[in-house]
TrEMBL record:
SUPFAM superfamilies for this protein: Ribosomal protein L25-like
Record key words, sorted: Ribonucleoprotein, Ribosomal protein, RNA-binding, rRNA-binding
Signal peptide location: none
Pfam families noted in UniProt: Ribosomal_L25p, Ribosomal_TL5_C
Protein name (record): Large ribosomal subunit protein bL25
Family annotation (HAMAP family): Ribosomal_bL25_CTC (MF_01334)
Native source organism of the sequence: Rhizobium favelukesii
Amino acid sequence: MSHESYELKAEARERVGKGSARELRRNGLIPAVIYGDKQAPISIALSTNEVTKRIHAGGFMTTIATIEVDGKTYKVLPKDYQLDPVRDFTMHVDFLRVSGNTQVTVEIPVHFINEEKSQGLKAGGVLNIVRHEIEVQCPADAIPEFFNVDLSGKKIGDSIHISDLTLPKGVATVIADRDFTIATIIAPAGGVDETVEEEGEAEA
C-alpha cells in the first residue's frame, strides 16, 4: 500500500483568477481545485506550509488525502501541482475526487534491492535504469507505494523486464502490449573483473 492517508483543512474560494491567486499566496495559501466523480469542481485554498510538507515527504501523488471544506469532507488524490520555476514554491494543486470504485492512473517508483548479490555489479558492471517509475492503473484505495526489483544473481548483459515483477491484485501496467525493460546491467567502460564473475558463476 502507499503512504498513510492524511487530512488537510481548506477554505472555499469565492473568487478565482490570477489576481485572487496572487493574493492567496501573499497570505500563505495555495489555490487548488477538487474535480471529478461527475460533480462540479470546487475551488479551495490550502495552507502553503502543509501542502509543501506533504510534497517533500514523498508519495504525494500516490497517497489519498481527506480534505475538509466548510464542514464537508472529500476523499481525493493529487493529480497535478505547479511549482514556481524560479522560487520553487507550490503555486497550484489539482485533486481528483475518489471512492472505493475509482480507478486511477499513477506512476509508481521502482526500488532496486540486493545489489550486493548481483554478480554483474560486483564485477564492476553498471546498473542502467531505464524506468525509475512504472505507470499503472489500479483502484484508488490500493495504490502500491513502490515496486521492488530484485537484482540477486543478475550478471553483465542481463535485463529486467516488467514480466519479472509480480504486480499486486487489481494493478495493471498502462503499457500492456509489450514486455518492456525496467533496467539492464551493462559492462563498464574499463571492462569487468572476470574473477568476480567466475566466482559468482561457481557459487551459482
